[in-house]
Specification:
By secondary structure, the protein is an alpha/beta fold. The protein contains 20 helices and 21 strands. The chain starts with a strand and ends with a strand.
């Protein structure tokens, strides 16, 4: 699919020059800082050297005093507490964090992950019944609950209190819980709104620690769980999330907990040491590694069997036990890959045979036999392939259940909300949502959702956009440039890895197709001295015919390090190639 290249507005030239001089860096790097809202020397220090001292006071969050008071009373009265969370990475990591922290000094505690197929997303009546049967008096719900009005009322009738820790948008009615921690509540004054569900859990234990004189240093051990949730839930890596992610990554790279070490043994990142069984990585782990190596495997437990296995993996201190659980989870992940590949192929064939689906502005596709655990992945793949708002639906427990994924600048939560009269349940955020409806409402929902998307996208062309930070001459790229550039990490939404554009480059000779349709390139910029520069362009082998004819072309790329046979060199990771007309 052809992509539209868009160069971001460049920073104020005067501020760029001033910052470049103050930091003694190239103006292209100073421009990246100004684009990210970093304009002064102090702001640059904060950006490049994140500090845990800059975390916000957790008591700025609405209801935090109420939450801590209720937990304190439960512990003083030796009440039974249930830590309840969603079955995805964010939910299970949040449960692991809060459960482990509280269990260290309160033994009347258990955790609960709802079954994706039997109970569905969020708080369930079955979960509340389990709590009542096991004499639970307080449930701490993580990554869910902000819309569970009926469920909270049901729990109250059984003498069970709730503390809700959520980061999703609230509905028109707020549940009558003992405390609700959600920065997205309109009247919540907490300064940072983009915490993950696990991040909210961390603020809860931070508040408890402050009141009970527990040193903050004791909480750092949980930041690996927070960064996994930040990466996997694709929340903004800005502000407080950037600080939490920075220190979480440091912890994982230095001392991964047994569960993470066991999972990483199934990746190419892990190398064993000299036989002592220690953990050595082939390079420093990044947010991207967590997204692709850790997140899918943790998610696979809840998709195929039970999210309880993910929590067990994350809370164990025994490496042998972690290896046993990780083996099961990795097997689930292998099964998940097969299921989502089959469903994706079926979906593509269904779209190809349906003229209405091919010409629509949205994709809403249904198959009763698709595995509920993979429809979100299928929705993401279809969004990448067709670049339009997408909902993938299947049948589960008598209801049609779906996962929605969006494209840039389109709020799919609002589009789903516009069809709420046809839905039984829904929830989510701007780029992803979940929903369920009765089978008899399917046709009406498809029509109404498509009409809603058409109205909201009126006059907008659905073309994937490549957002480029700046044009860059190749001779600027050197080891000093890269050493500064990599300190912009951790990268993710709100602070993406800088993408550069260089026009008019040419093949320096030796370019070739490698692997499965990848281009290994050596490029020069004829108008500028220096080079050649090594480059890789994945899945772009079809461009080789014109490149080898010495036709100039434009590239957009990330600058990265490449290790080969023990040697580390800079290379351009080319994301797209365009030839002049």
């Amino acid at each position: 699919m052809d992509k539209r290249w868009v160069v971001k507005p460049q920073g104020n030239p005067e501020k760029v020059r001033e910052l470049a001089n103050l930091l003694a860096i190239d103006q292209s790097l100073a421009n990246l800082l100004v684009q990210r809202g970093v304009n002064t020397l102090n702001e640059a220090k904060t950006f490049f050297r994140p500090s845990l001292r800059d975390l916000y006071d957790p008591f700025l969050m609405k209801d935090m005093y109420k939450a801590i008071a209720r937990i304190t009373r439960a512990i003083a009265n030796k009440e039974r507490i249930l830590v309840y969370g969603d079955y995805d990475v964010d939910g299970t990591s949040a449960v692991a964090l809060v459960y482990t922290f509280l269990h260290s000094f309160h033994k009347e505690i258990d955790f609960y992950i709802p079954d994706r197929y039997d109970e569905g997303y969020g708080i369930s009546f079955k979960g509340i019944d389990f709590a009542a049967e096991t004499k639970v008096k307080l449930i701490i719900a993580l990554d869910c609950g902000i819309k569970a009005v009926e469920k909270i009322a049901y729990a109250t009738g059984k003498g069970i209190d709730f503390i809700i820790c959520d980061h999703h948008r609230p509905g028109s009615e707020i549940p009558a819980a003992s405390a609700i921690l959600d920065p997205k509540q309109p009247d919540c004054p907490y300064p940072y709104k983009e915490l993950s569900g696990c991040g909210i859990g961390f603020k809860l234990i931070q508040a408890y620690a402050q009141v009970n004189n527990i040193p903050f240093e004791n909480l750092i051990q949980y930041l690996d769980l927070v960064v996994i949730s930040i990466a996997s839930d694709i929340v903004d890596i800005t502000g407080e999330n950037r600080i939490l992610a920075h220190y979480g990554l440091k912890l994982i790279n230095a001392h991964p907990r047994p569960g993470l070490e066991a999972l990483l043994r199934y990746s190419a990142m892990m190398k064993n040491d000299d036989g002592m069984g220690g953990c050595v990585f082939s390079r420093e782990l990044t947010i991207t590694d967590l997204v692709f190596m850790i997140g899918p495997r943790i998610n696979a437990a809840g998709r195929i069997e039970s999210g309880n296995n993910s929590v067990r993996l994350l809370i164990t201190k025994d490496l042998d036990e972690a290896k046993r659980v990780a083996e099961q989870i990795n097997a689930h992940n292998t099964e998940r890959k097969t299921l989502d590949s089959q469903a994706t192929q079926q979906a593509i064939e269904m779209i190809g045979c349906n003229t209405t689906l091919k010409s629509a502005r949205s994709t809403v596709i249904y198959h009763p036999d698709w595995h509920k655990g993979v429809i979100g992945i299928v929705a993401s793949r279809l969004t990448e392939s067709y670049y339009r708002p997408t909902i993938v639906l299947t049948l589960s427990n008598g209801l049609i259940t779906g996962s929605a994924r969006s494209v840039k600048d389109f709020d799919i939560y609002e589009a789903v909300d516009a069809c709420s009269d046809l839905l039984e349940h829904f929830g989510g955020h701007k780029f992803a949502a979940g929903l369920s409806l009765k089978p008899e409402n399917l046709e009406s929902f498809c029509n109404k959702f498509e009409a809603t998307v058409q109205e909201k996208l009126k006059g907008i062309e659905l073309v994937p956009e490549v957002e480029i930070d700046a044009t860059l001459p190749l001779n600027v790229i050197n080891s000093r440039f890269y050493n500064v550039l990599k300190q912009f990490a951790p990268f993710g939404p709100g602070n993406m890895a800088p993408l550069f554009m260089t026009n008019g480059v040419m093949d320096a000779g030796g370019s070739r197709i490698v692997g499965k349709n990848h281009l290994k390139l050596s490029v020069v910029h004829p108008e500028i001295a220096g080079g050649p520069f090594s480059a890789i362009a994945f899945q772009q082998g079809e461009q080789f015919g014109l490149i080898e004819k010495q036709i100039p072309f434009n590239i957009c790329y990330h600058v990265e390090e490449n290790e080969w046979n023990g040697a580390v060199n800079l290379q351009l990771n080319i994301k797209d190639i365009k030839f002049s007309d």
